[in-house]
Amino acid sequence: xxxxxxxxxxxxxxxxxxxxxxxxxxxxxxxxxxxxxxxxxxxxxxxxxxxxxxxxxxxxxxxxxxxxxxxxxxxxxxxxxxxxxxxxxxxxxxxxxxxxxxxxxxxxxxxxxxxxxxxxxxxxxxxxxxxxx
Length: 133
Prior knowledge:
Keywords: Membrane, Transmembrane, Transmembrane helix
Low-confidence stretches: none
Strand content: under 5%
Transmembrane segments: 22-44, 56-79, 91-109
Number of strands: 0
């Protein structure tokens, strides 16, 4: 049995029949995934499992957010420029973008954390300089 980009676990006919709804469902699943992970992160933080929050949930949140922004351009290209691209291929492109973003975030997690810490310090210094005396 060979692999084809026109099949998706037996749901290719349902996905291709949705047309424009594939875009709505795809981006909505990313947004609701972010909201769900935020709620889980709040609960985990209240419980006190900060390491789980720091090494599992935050990278997933960051990769979903990056996927949301990075997936816009290929979706526009696939959907507007190439009109014959099926919904299954768009779903595959989103999955590949998410896996790539997840690997990028996991491999560069410490660098990303250091960047945000440094950015926070710079904003505090700028706020201290601009305070009213």
